[in-house]
Amino acid sequence: MFDFLKRSVDGPHEVKASATGPVVAAMSGAGRVAWSPRDTVSLTRVGFTGNPVGFRVVKLIAEAASALPVVVQSATQRFNTHPLLSVIERPNSAQGRAELFEALYAQLLLSGNGYLEAVGEGAVRELHVLRSDRMSLVPGADGWPVAYEYAVGGRTHRFAVTDGATPICHIKSFHPSDDHYGLSPIVAAATAIDVHNSASRWSKSLLDNAARPSGAIVYKGADGQAAMSSDQYDRLLSEMESHHQGARNAGRPMLLEGGLDWKPMGFSPSDMEFQKTKDAAARDIAVAFGVPPMLLGLNGDATYANYQEANRAFYRLTVLPLVSKVTSSVGHWLSEMTGDAVTLKPDLDQVPALAAERDAQWARVAEAKFLTPDEKRRMLGLPPLADGAPFDAQEV
C-alpha cells in the first residue's frame, strides 16, 4: 500500500555539483571532519540555561513554531491522510509532532544547525532530533557532505551519504563565513548576554549586602590617632562579616564602640543607571532572536501600539519564516527518501494571531470576479480542484 515510501532504485542517479565545490573541499580538507568554529555547549550554558531572557526567547519561538499544524500537499491536492503525515504526527514512541519540532527549532536557534534522523528500512518509520553539539559534518572532494558523525562519550556513529541520499536532514541558518555550519542568533547576542548576566550578578551582590551600598567605618582614637592596632582591625572585620553582611543580617542594628563612626554612602549615578543597562541588554537579546521586547514584558518598551500588533509581527516576521524554512527542508528531504513528490508546509489557516489578516485576504480574493476558482485557490496556497470534486473529499 505504501510502496511510494520506498526509495526508487531504477535508473542512474543524476550527479549535481557546484563548480566551487572542489575549492571549498580543499580549504576544509576532504574526508576530514569540518569542526564548528564556535563552542555550542558554552553558548547554550551561558545564553540559554544561565540567562532568563535567552531562555524565554528560545522557548517562545520554539513553542510557537512547533504549535503550528503542518499539511502534506502535492501539486494537485492536499491530503487529509497520508503515511508521511502519520509519521510526522507521531514521529517516535517518546515524542509527538509538537515535541519533535520544538526540539528541532530549539537546536536550530541555539546552534544554527538542526539535525533530523530518519529510521526505517526502505520506509520512513520514525524521526529523531539529534543534538547539534554532538554532530560533525565530513565533506567530500566536491565540497558536499559524504557523512555525518555523531559522537557521544568517546563513541562515534557514522551516517554515510550515498548517491545523494542521507538518513540525516541538516537544516542550517545562514553563515557568511562558514560553508558547512549555520550561525546561531545567540552568537550575535553573546555580548548582550554577558552584559545582562553581569548586571544580574551585580544585583545579587547588592542583595547579599543588605540591598544597600557599602559604607565606611571611620575610626578616631581618644588621643586623636586615626590608626587601629592589628588585633582591633581583625576583630572589627570578623564582627562585620559575621553579624552585618548578607541578606539574613539585613536591618540588624550596628553597635559601635568609642572612636568608631559609620558613614553611609549613597548610590552613585552609575549605580542608578545599572538597571537601565540590564534592560537595554535584554532588548538587544530579544532583537537578535526576532522577538518584540513587548512580548517579554520589558519596561519602557512601547515600539508597538498594542500587544496584538506585537504578536502579529512576531508571527509574521519570526515564526512563519522559520517554520516555512524548516518544513520545506524536511518535506524535500522526505520526498527524496520516499520518491513521493509532496511538500510539507504550515497551515496558515490555523494561526490565531493571523486570523484577521487571513480573513481579509480570503475576502479580497473571493470578491475578485476576474479570477477563476483555480487561480483564487492558487493565490491562497491551495491546490486546484480535480474534476470539480469537493476539496474535502480528496484523500489517499
TrEMBL record:
InterPro entries per record = Phage/GTA_portal, Portal_HK97
Stated name of the protein: Phage portal protein
Superkingdom in the source lineage: Bacteria
Q: What is the lineage of its organism?
A: Bacteria, Pseudomonadati, Pseudomonadota, Alphaproteobacteria, Rhodobacterales
